[in-house]
């Protein structure tokens, strides 16, 4: 009987140790899975941050391209305007006098409009209106004085 009791105790002890080993193995597996999931989550967050950074970079590049196209178009317009002005040539004296007075009159008028808008409008509307009027007045002034610079060859 002692042999049977020893055999039963050995079987129970082996079963108990096997069960404990299984539980420890399962617990280790759970810890490993949690670590893998945390690593995957960190990788996904990193990828999301990288995609966001790439998207912002593409957006900034697109905005820069738009600004460049806008500036280039403005310069092309100025070149076309100068070419059209040069192509007019000589005309009657009174036509040249009217043409000569038109630009200064329009320039002064634009500066007057700018001043009136700045002094007379509310703060909410002032920003956009003054910005546009200032742009127009400055462009007219610079166009006037830029076009009236000393000429190398007389017309």
Automatic annotation (TrEMBL):
Spans through the membrane: 6-25, 105-123, 129-146
Keywords recorded for this protein, A-Z: Membrane, Transmembrane, Transmembrane helix
Name of this chain's protein: Uncharacterized protein
